[in-house]
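Minutes, project check-in
Item: structure for the 299-residue chain
Input as provided by the requester:
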Amino acid sequence: MELKLLVTFEKVSTVLSFTRAATELRYAQSSVTSQIRALESSLGVELFERLGSHIRLTEAGERLVPYARRIIELTEEARTAVAETDVPAGTIAIGTMESLTSYRLPPLLELFHHRYPKVQLSLRTTLGDETRQALRQGTYDIGFLMEPDTEHAGLESEILAPEPLALVASPRHPLATRTSLTPADLAATQLVGTEPGCPYRDLFEAALSEWSPPFMEFGTIEATKRGVASGLGIALVPRITVAEELSTGVLVELDWKVPFTLFTQIAWRRGKRLPAHVRLFVEQARRLVSEQTPRASQA
């Protein structure tokens, strides 16, 4: 089996589209089709079922996927080992949330920009389910998650830090001076949040599900904070994202105990051999993100 054929097969198996695979591999679609046929011929089995304009893996194709990925990863590891120098180099595709990119990761990104310029970081903003799926498929090398669960099927993960949450409002909000707030109190006011799929938004909504309150949705954490500061409503957000606003009095924290706990985690596909530059990234993430925890907790 030629490596080129396995690379093409792995890409098609991930995106389940000959057209998209051709675009991402920078091949003509006819080249992708002929390479898959050549691989099927050499193995004596069909790897994909053609269903009109759609395709899916056959049982034989499903069995080949982990072997193809292992062979590709071992080949990349061998190339790195042979050409290894003292300077880390390579690309890392990273799935992460906007709030983590803006508030947890800057020290890590700055470190790699200045100290390891030959390591190219590609950050892609996705939420939990999408990030996990992309990791399992090999689209991402590394993913950052903010979840209550710390075990994820098909993934290796490490907790980097607990992620304290704060329910915040404008100092002028009617609930700002209230104590011992109940879920019913919260449900009776306007709620502001990011889009569904955001873990703390979804858990907050579930905690108030008895009342099914509507949310005023904002696309980003920054827009959410501005909306709350202007008096549009209250929002549950990671404390680290509002530390400055709480210290300056732009926002105040409401007296409500959050009934769930989130953990910021780093994850990668189970069984994946991490190249040296990716291992370095994981090690530095473990160190730098964890170091922020005491400051975040005291904010």
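Outcome recorded: Residues 294-299 have pLDDT under 50 and may be disordered.
No further action items on this chain.
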